[in-house]
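note to self — DONT lose this again. spent like an hour looking for the file last time. sequence + predicted structure for the chain T wanted, 494 res
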Amino acid sequence: MSVETPRLGSILPMPLDEKDLKEVVEKSRDWAIMHGAGMRSKTNFSKDALYFAPFVLIPSVFPRREFYKALELQLVLNEMVHWVAHNRIFLTEVLKETIQVDEFTGNLFKIYETVQDEGITQPISLGILRSDIMLETSCSNPGKNCLRHPPYCCWKQVELNTIASGFGWLGPVSAMIQRYVLQELGHHDLAANLPENNALEGLCSGMLEAWKMYGDIEATILFIVEDVTYNICDQRFHEFEIKRLNPYVKVIRKTLTEIGNEATLGSSNELIIDNRPVAVVYFRAGYEPNHYHSQLEWDARLMIERSQAIKSPSIHYHLAGTKKVQQALAKPGTLEMFLSDSGKIEAVREIFTGLYSLDLDEFGDQAIQMALDQPERYVLKPQREGGGNNIYGEEIKDAILKMKDSKERSAWILMERIHPPISSGYIVRPGGPEVPELLDLVSELGIYGVIIGDSYKIYSNRQCGHMLRTKTSTANEGGVAAGLGALDSPYLVD
């Protein structure tokens, strides 16, 4: 990132006084761990031990205008994804090349075709979505709403997640940590500019709404989890919040392996686990190839899709969240298939950065040449969630040269890289120094949405909370669970 990159201001003069910094870092570490902002260690794993999740000490500046614009647009994005997920012709056409070369997406699509051909047992889907965005400092194709002055001109969408939209707890708790820090530093008044964040309650209310629609008070909510859970606080706080909102609803946690060994389908295709029907299946795992170790896990996924349980996501929502589908939505004329209001269409189109197919055709060849000529301008993305899978910079050229003459390239898309403004701040990490270094940082804002509906009607559609992840300005990836980013919250400025 060049030194000329525009900068956002800081809410406090930087650097902080060293004595004050050391004291507040020590206190905030303890505050974080004692209030549930924790994770299990990947290097020294123990179910009995927690480390605090990395966090940014002082909240990062974010323009108020753009924040509320993103909140408002989330309802439109929810609607768009819902209708995309229910369009079999579109999904089949868009993914036809990808499923030939990407085994994981191909396996998902086989399940999709199977349940479509058999007839959908449960028509209702629960969409728990998150749209990730970044401020942009240099639009190559600015829209009418772009500002023409630094430190930014607009914001662009990084991706739209339809599965494992985590941090419903860690997003809100980051603001709690930072409110505490501001109070300790004597700046109580500044906390008023940290926006309310109801992500945990909003996401859990969506699950309970779907549970109620299922219509059986004895039915449970099932969390599909990994074999080893590191992000345990975030998951458990969802479970605890469901119990707080409705003490009579039982939440159970199972891996796909356990589902394969223990679950059955009842006479009316109820998903039965522990002798009780399951009303809602919430996937906190199942979105990466390493979550499927054998045919047993794939059989479990098919059983879930065949069942009466309301899925989050259903298999069609899962496919609608692939990068290939997001790239296809950016093509001229596509949004009109799913949104009828011209204002909504224009608003969505303006947040897309350049997205390009790498299929074996004329347009794919053009994108290949663009990536080879200027690899620093792009990100190479596979059909994956979870972070750590993208390719950047000069490594793009190596990857492209290896696959440019093979069908494998159809499993990837090319995205124009977003150049966000830089801010200054401190990241507090487990095992880090008592006095952290002042760093150049960039942030990514995630907006949550919940939508419930079937192929004919949307029953509920709302925006519910946000999260902010921040990383050093030189880092490519920024996943907190992967150890690359840090929890943060937006400090709104005019």
